[in-house]
Design a protein that fits this description.
Blueprint (H helix, E strand, L loop, with lengths): L4 H31 L2 H38 L1
Length: 76
């Protein structure tokens, strides 16, 4: 196996955690926007962008890890 199983488990478990974190932060952004707090809304928006970027990176890393494992299994 090219990619260790614990790394695959970490990538798979991080996916729903990041989705929930993104949803919660976007909810907080909407609440801050509605309450008229532009500074807090801007900070929450940047945190949400960071969560979304981590989510995309996690998905790409997961696809690459699973692809490498599939190639390695095919060789055996």
């Amino acid at each position: 196996m090219v990619v260790p199983k614990r790394i695959l488990v970490a990538l798979v478990l991080a996916l729903p955690v990041l989705v929930v974190a993104f949803a919660v932060v976007m909810g907080g952004w909407g609440l801050a926007q509605g309450m008229g707090d532009p500074g807090g809304a801007m900070a929450l928006r940047w945190i949400a962008v960071a969560c979304l970027m981590l989510l995309v990176m996690d998905g790409l890393l997961l696809m690459m890890a699973l692809g490498l494992n599939a190639i390695e299994e095919r060789r055996d």
